[in-house]
Amino acid sequence: MELYAAVVCGHDDRADALLRKLLPFWQFIVRHGLPRAIKAGLDFQQRPAGPPRPPLLPLPQYETRQLREMLTDLLAGRLPPSAV
Fold first, then answer.
1. Alpha helix locations (H) across the chain?
2. InterPro entries of this UniProt entry (predicted)?
3. Deepest of 5, 7, 54, 62, by most Cβ within 10 A of its Cβ?
């Protein structure tokens, strides 16, 4: 919403800064798959959604850690402590 508001209000510098911050997260989702990333993100919030349906597999541990780090940064530390 903040990115949208910055664009609509013509705050180009703010929109560019937000985009730079969000882009790695969006690229991660595209590279690793939306269902896998969403399910891992829900697990971080202690809202398990179960494993992805075949043929998809859960994110490997390394990618899960990467996702947690990105989300922790984006959400300013509002994720519960890691179990991974």
1. 2-8, 12-32, 34-44, 61-74
2. Aldolase_TIM (IPR013785)
3. 7
d(Cα 2, Cα 51) in Å, to the nearest integer?
Answer: 31
What distance in Å separates the CA atoms of residue 7 and residue 11, rounded to the nearest whole number?
6
Residue in this structure with the two tokens 């990115």, named with its chain if needed: 3
Say how many domains are in the chain. 1
What is the C-alpha to C-alpha distance for residues 19 and 16, in angstroms, rounded to an integer?
5
Surface-to-core class of residue 53, CB atoms within 10 Å of its CB (0-12 exposed, 13-18 middle, 19+ buried): exposed
Assess if residue 38 is contained within a domain: yes
